[in-house]
Specification:
The chain is of the alpha+beta class. It folds into 2 domains: about 5-70, Winged helix-like DNA-binding domain superfamily/Winged helix DNA-binding domain (Arc Repressor Mutant, subunit A), CATH 1.10.10.10; about 80-125, 2-Layer Sandwich (Dna Ligase, domain 1). Helix content is about 35%, strand content about 15%. It contains 4 helices and 5 strands; from the N terminus they run αααβββββα. It has helices at about 5-20, 25-35, 40-55, 120-125; strands spanning about 60, 70, 80-85, 90, 115-120. The strands form 2 sheets. Strands 4-3-5 form a 3-stranded mixed beta sheet, with no helix packed on it. A two-stranded antiparallel sheet has the order 1-2. α1 crosses α2. The longest helix is centred in the first third of the chain and has 18 residues, at about 5-20. The protein is globular and about 55 Å long. The N and C termini lie far apart (about 45 Å).
């Protein structure tokens, strides 16, 4: 496989992750990037994800009991919404918890993550 092909495949993967504007997993990345690159293999997607994480261009979004999704690195602090029906993950803007949510006496928080579970608008309409 030529370097040009690998570069084009990797660029299509990066562009899909960047443009979809929500955390996505390897199968969805594979499907989305295939629109722009013929014969894109799932192994290529996994290699590109690993490389993009190592370069600091994307970060993993971990949800308990689910495989990681990936989103563009460097986003402002935000939380996530997990649709129980379609299993897609969406970004939530803002945070009402502030820097120090109610903690027991003597505790100190450095960071927090919140995931809201339910049905996305598309699944809710079905």
């Amino acid at each position: 496989m030529s370097m040009e092909r690998r570069t084009r495949q990797r660029e299509a993967i990066w562009e899909f992750i960047r443009d979809v504007n929500r955390p996505v997993g390897p199968p969805e990345i594979h499907e989305g990037a295939q629109v722009n690159v013929d014969r894109l293999g799932i192994a290529t997607v996994y290699r590109a994800i690993k490389s993009l994480v190592e370069e600091g261009r994307i970060v993993a979004v971990s949800l308990p009991g689910h495989p990681p999704r990936y989103e563009v690195a460097g986003l402002r602090h935000h939380h996530h919404f997990f649709c129980d029906d379609c299993e897609r993950v969406f970004e939530l803007t803002g945070c009402d918890l502030g820097r120090s949510p109610s903690l027991p006496f003597g505790f100190s928080a450095d960071r927090h993550e919140v995931t809201v579970y339910g049905r996305c608008a598309e699944c809710e309409q079905r």
